[in-house]
Every structure is written in C-alpha cells, then in structure tokens.
Amino acid sequence: MKAIRIHEHGGVDKLRFQDAPDPEITAPKDVIVKLEAAALNHIDIWVRMGATGMEIPMPHILGADGAGVVVDVGSEVKSLRAGDKVCLYSFTGCGECEFCLSDRDFMCIRVKALGERLDGTYAERVKVAPENCFPIPPYMTFDEAAAFPLVFLTVWRMLVTNARLQPGETLLIVGVGGGVAGAALQVGARIGARVIVTSGSDEKIERALALGAAHGINHRQKDYAKEVQQWTDGRGVDVVVDSVAGEVWQKSLASLGHGGRLVTCGATAGWQPNDDLNAIISKSLKIYGSTLGSREDFRQLLGFLNATQIHPVIDSKFSLNQAADAQRRMEEARQFGKIILQNSI
Ligand SMILES: [Zn+2]
272 exposed, middle or buried (CB, 10 Å; 0-12, 13-18, 19+)? Predict the structure, then answer.
C-alpha cells in the first residue's frame, strides 16, 4: 500500500510518500480498514518532530484520525464485517489497569494511540481493534467522519462529561481559531448554551457567529473579561473553555460567575499562568483539566451527532502524497477547521 512514513524525526521534509507493507490479520481480533480519508491533528506534528518524548518505532506512519471501510476481520471478530463503514477511536490501553477496566484507556500509562505508538492513518490501510471501530454517522461523508473524532471527543468530555454544560447556560470560548474551540462552539450551541467567543481576528469572529456564536469579542481591541461582565449584566458566564492560559488565565477566571466551571485544555500562551486563588475560592469555581475522552464519551458523542446532524468544519483537502503541504498549512496556523488527506484524489 501507499503511506506517508517518517524514518527519522524532523521537519516536513521527513514525510515520505512510499510503499509500505499491507497490514495483515495476525490475531483473531484484528480488523483491517481501507481508509478513504485521514485528518490532521497537532499531535502528528509533535510526533514527526520527536517532541512527545516517546520512543517510536521507525519507519512510522503518522495520523490519529481516519475513516474508511472494513475489508478484513480476524476469526473472533463478531461485531464487524467487510463492507462496514467505520470511523476510529484512537486509543488502546493495556487492558489490565484500573483505567482500562473502567473504560478510560486514554488515561492508561501504557496507552497506544494510532499514529503515536501504533502505525496511523496517513495510509491506504490501517490495522485496528474491533472495539476501536464505530459506525460512521450516516449523514456524514468519509472526509467528515475522519475530521470529527479526536476534536469532538475532546470537546464532549470537556463540556458534557466534565463541565456538565446545561441548556440555557452561557459558555465562553477563549481563542476560537483552533479545531477544538470550533467544535466546542458547535456542540455548545446545539446543547442550547449561549456561546461567547474571543479571537484576535475579526474574520474568525465572523465565521464563529455564522456557526452559532451569540457574541464575539476581539481580544486585541477589548478586555474580554470586562466585555463578558457587561454582556451578562454583571453575572458572568457558567463555563469557560480556555486553551490559551498564560496572561489571559486571570481574565478567564474573572469572566466566570459564582459556581462557574473552567475547563483548561491547552496553554498556547504559557503553562505557568498567574493564578487568582481569591476568585477561585470566593466564587466557588471548579477547574477541570481535560484531554481526549473514553469510548463511552465517544458513544454518547455519536448519538448526539446523529441527533443534531452537526457537520464538522473542513478547512481544506489534500491528496495523501501532499501530506507535507497539508502539515505546513497547519504549522502556519492558516486553517479554520480540519485539514483532510484523501486517498481518492
Ligand atoms: Zn491500562
């Protein structure tokens, strides 16, 4: 099969489009999926650069997100057969620890993820476990089914499992450019929350308003904590999603009302923010660190997507052999939505 492989860590020039061995059924629970599309995530770039601190067998196929059609299954696979259209849950734990035994493989210290310790989805085929295959929502294309899993799973766990966002609440999303923030906007709006977004770009705010945001604040021009307090008549918001941290962290805390919940899921402006314990204590705030999600989160998410028919936002499509161009676009932060690699073009 054709695949994008790295033989050593480094820049986009290390991505090689080449022949790789077809994955084969070697265990009774193996499933082979013929991939129609893969989607890029920042983790792909960190793995390529060797920034994860993880020992990765070389040559290695990148890619955590993908969707396609089952073409072969091992003798003990009961839930799938050739022809099934599937999207993928990326994480396989050790199967023995307290996290794996409670359906939280993604927290397992020995977890293996597609494109990290396992060969990933920048390829024509991939080998996966049956419990990591989920039916594609029938209203989605293969591109969309490759685009949503990692970001929407992350968002579902942040907003629903952790922060328990309710209809009628107010949600503030700090920095709406990235994939997770965009998905949080779509999910939050469909749950029935009023969503406020901030961005340094008027263009991104316009796009967020078109996707269902109730209010946008350009944080280069205005102090968003003050603007949020004004917009909510001094009450503050119920939930903040902050993937920026750094010097804006205190503003996120200041934007919350009493009993508010803050979900931190990244720190693009710095990992050691100036905290405000007074705000946390006096307003009885809850702070959740959140990343990725469980199979149960994924199952709930699929039900929600089928009910709401949300379409993940796709920025651009490249053919598999253009993976370097695709990753360059992501590294330069030019995208709004997901970047797709297709096998059919
Ligand atoms: Zn485990």
Answer: exposed
Show pLDDT as tens, one digit a residue, over the chain (345 residues). 999 999 999 999 999 999 999 999 999 999 999 999 999 999 999 999 999 888 899 999 999 999 999 999 999 999 999 999 999 999 999 999 999 999 888 999 999 999 999 999 999 999 999 999 999 999 999 999 999 999 999 999 999 999 999 999 999 999 887 788 889 999 999 999 999 999 988 999 999 999 999 999 999 999 999 999 999 999 999 999 998 888 889 999 999 999 999 999 877 778 888 888 899 999 999 999 998 999 999 999 999 999 999 999 999 999 999 999 999 999 988 788 899 999 975
Residue 309 CA to ligand 1 centre (angstroms): 33
Cα of 91 from ligand 1 centre, angstroms:
11
Q: Report the separation in Å between the CA atom of 98 and the middle of ligand 1, taken as the mean of its atom positions.
A: 7
Residue found under tokens 């490249």 = 318
Residue whose entry in the numeric block shows the structure tokens 């979900």: 263
Rounded to the nearest angstrom, the distance between the alpha carbon of 93 and the centre of ligand 1 is: 5
Closest by CA to 338, choosing from 318, 319, 314, is 314
C-alpha 53 to ligand 1 mean position (Å): 19
Ligand 1: centre distance to CA 90 (Å):
14
- Interval between CA 134 and ligand 1 midpoint (Å): 21
Rounded to the nearest angstrom, the distance between the alpha carbon of 99 and the centre of ligand 1 is 6
3-state SS class at 241: strand
CA distances for 255 relative to 118, 121, 233, angstroms: 41, 40, 12
